[in-house]
Each structure stands twice: as C-alpha cells, then as structure tokens.
What does this fold into?
Amino acid sequence: MKFLEKYQKEFAAYDQLDHDFIDDDKIWRQLNEHANPTAAEVRRVLAKAEGCVRLEPEEVAVLIQNQDPQTIEEMYRLAHTLKEEVYGDRIVFFAPLYISDECANNCKYCGFRSSNTAMRRKTLTMEEIEQEVKIMIEEGQKRTVLVYGESPATEVDFMCETIRKVYSVKTEHGEIRRANINCAPLTVEELKKLKEVGIGTFQVFQETYHHETYRQMHPQGTIKGHYRWRLYCMDRAQQAGVDDNGLGVLFGLYDWRFEVMGLLYHTIHLEETFNGVGPHTISFPRITPATDTPFSDHPEYAVSDADFKKLVAILRLSIPYTGLICTAREKDEVRRQVLPFGVSQIDAGTRIGVGAYARSKKANELPDKEQFTICDSRTLDEVVSEICQMGAIPSFCTACYRAGRTGEHFMKVAKSKFVHNYCLPNAIFTLKEYLLDYGSEETRKIGEKVLNEHIERFRGEPVYERIRQIIQRLENGERDLRL
Ligand code: SAM
Ligand code: SF4
It folds into this structure.
C-alpha cells in the first residue's frame, strides 16, 4: 500500500480546489444551445477555422452538433486542407512497446486491470527489452511509445532504465531514435527524471472528462480513481520541463460530443497556463474487446464509424496544429477513411502484448486479445506501401525532437505553418532509408515513385540541390541525415 500512499499525499492539493477546468454542466449547456445549427452558422465557424486557429468552445459545439450532410462534407474538405497546410502530406509512423502489464488499478474497460485473473502478468527484463527492440529495428521502426501499467514493478527509476535501454540498442540498420511514453500520471520530481533520460512525448489519456463516468470506471481507493491527479498531470509535466505532451480520450466511455469538448477545454487550459503551449498530440482510441473484460465488448457509448470520422475532422478543425494519432485499434478500412481528415501519426507492425514482438517471431501469429484488440494487424511494410499508394510520405522523422524543437519552439513553427518546410525533406530522407534498408520490392517501387514526385516539388528552390545530395549520400550508405 506504500505505493498508493506516496501519491495520496499529493492528492490533497487537488482536493482543496473548489472546481477544475472541466465544467460538465457548462459543456452540456454549450452543446444544447447549439443543437441543430444552421448551414450559415456552420460556415461562419468554418470561415474562422480556415485561418488555422484554435476554435472556441461555442464554435466547436456548432461543428459537433451539425447534422447537415452538405456542410459536414465541407467540414471534411477543410479538415483535409488544414492537415495538408500544417503537416504536409506525410504520415509519421511508430510502434508501441509494451513493457509491463502489471497494474494496481482496476479500470473497468482494460484487460490489465488488477481484478482480471485471466491475465498472466509480466514485466520485461532489460534483456527482453533488448530483444524486442532489436526485432522492432529490424522491421524498420525508428519511433516507439513505451507502455506501462501502474504498479510498484514499474516505478519511475525503472522506467528511466527501460528508456536508456531502448536508446542503447543498435543493430546493423540503426536504432530507435525517439521513445515516447504512455504511463500513469507522475509527480513533478518523477517527471524531471524522465526528462533527463530524453523521453519524447509524455502521453496520459484522461479516458473520460465526464466526472461521474470517470468515477464509475475507476474505483475509488485506486490511484487512477483520482480524477484531478490525472487531469492536472500535464501541468506537472510542464512544471518539470516536459513540454511535449499527449492527451487522449478513450471513446466509448461517455458521449463523444462531450469528450471532444473536454479535449478542447484541456487544450485551452494548457495554452492559457503555459504560454500558448497546448498538447503536442491527441489520441482518440475507441474501446476494443479485451481479455475477460465484459465491459469492453459492448461499451454503452460506443462511437459509430460515421461519428468517429466526424470527430477526427472536428479535432483537426478545432486544434489545427496538434498531431492526431489514429492507432491500430481501428480496422484498416476505418484508418484509410479518417487519414485524409487530419491524422498525422499512425502505428503499424504493432504488437501489444508484453514480449509480443519476440513471441510473434516464434509463433508467427498474433494473440487475438490482450489489453485490448488490434484490428489492423498488417505489417509495417504493408502499411508503408499503402500510404505511398495514396501519394503520401510515410515518415520516420525524429528531427524536431532531436533538435530541441518541442513545446513553445514547436508550437511557434507549427502555428506558423513552417513545419512542413523542415519536415517534408526530413520525412523524404527517412522514407529513403526505410526503402533502402527494409522495403520489399513492391514497396520500393511505389516508394521511389512517391519520393521523386515529392522531391520534384522543390525544384527551383535552393533546397532542391541539398535534398538531391542527401538522397545520394543515403544511397552511398550514410544514414540518419537531416536538414
Ligand atoms: N496504465 C497507464 C494508464 O492507464 O494511463 C497507461 C497504459 S494503458 C496500457 C494505455 C491506454 O490504453 C489507456 O490510457 C486506455 O485509454 C487504453 N485502453 C485501455 N483499455 C482499452 C480497451 N479495452 N480498448 C482500447 N483501448 C484501451
Ligand atoms: Fe492499468 Fe492503465 Fe489498464 Fe487502467 S488502463 S488497468 S491503469 S493499464
């Protein structure tokens, strides 16, 4: 119980606040006030969104409540345009690395919850992490997100050790260049330690912003049972100097319309408190079935594919400079549908069990359910090939993070639309590396075509020759080159 006590002491400060920045009644009031907006109201909001600015809650409520097919199509078109303007037509790739499924919490929807006796628990040893990372690198991964339960087995010093381990693994073809992390909320002191070892994005999903639903999903007496400890974890991250943060909602726990408003209010809170720095990414997983977890089979607020598509577009329109992550929990056809509306990051070649990369090599098959279910189980090469066929650039780029362009610095370039001036050439280089080192024959063919088309778009600009030179150096065997 010492583990819980350590955090309980920290809860007191939050218990003293008479309110937090999520006002459930106000959110419903705003949604209800804008029920059935007119086409003119929707278009007024879209005209503002065209300017690539973060929208206000009343405006987002209008988009959320819009039921008119014609203006919904206009929302999709603008979401696509904004995505191209801010991010260019590149999609960043990553894959998760599950470090531990030991967990002291008891979240109703999760296969890792403590009351789930069907799970055999495991925390990877350093040797096992090395084995997993080698397999990931050999499949072509450059970016990962380390995932942990919340338990004494994975306290912060252990997390730091795992991150150092991941960065230390090198193979003939390279290394993991960016390790993000998805874990439980931490104290400022703990977060400082994570900063020191060089984590990328610090992700914690609020799961649901609705206070009462949160209480029902996360039993009191567990650490996760404390809504505000979680709600303010990105404030603590900023205080610790971890300024690259990822928010998220687990869709299906409560009404999606409320949750989108929750994400917006969280963004506004961070921007107002930390000099304009909002979330670096937003994730929007939908619940998928988990081992022996009846709740996850039929969540009460399951989001339909049509609403899912709409919510992705609304996030892009409302918070235009934030990365949007669509994970392999979604089926490939759903991912294909939502990509154009603003998704900037996807995972591929994903295994979600602890030790699952090594296991899948041995058994050559994926387990059907674990913490949740993976619906897009294609290989990295298959997904890279598909993105190329769509004419976009699969990117493994880590340049911004390694050049220190995070937090305020990142927001400046993102908000002024300069990201793709750095990012497109660097994305091109990482795709070239992928094709040279890992691409199947078919992927190379389509990949080279897309590369050339994109490089030619720079013709006439001073940077064109530099891009050509770097491509030549990569062909000659150099690696990890960037502008
Ligand atoms: N234990 C940490 C926590 O809860 O914040 C982080 C790791 S947890 C393994 C990562 C995320 O998986 C959770 O934040 C939750 O949104 C998601 N998740 C849990 N159960 C899920 C399910 N049945 N389907 C889809 N996603 C799920
Ligand atoms: Fe544990 Fe996270 Fe699963 Fe909750 S969602 S049971 S905290 S791993």
About this structure: The longest strand covers residues 90-98. The pocket of iron/sulfur cluster (ligand 2) is lined by residues 103, 105, 107, 110, 112-113, 149-150, 224 (CB under 6 Å). The CA atoms of residues 389 and 446 lie 7 Å apart.
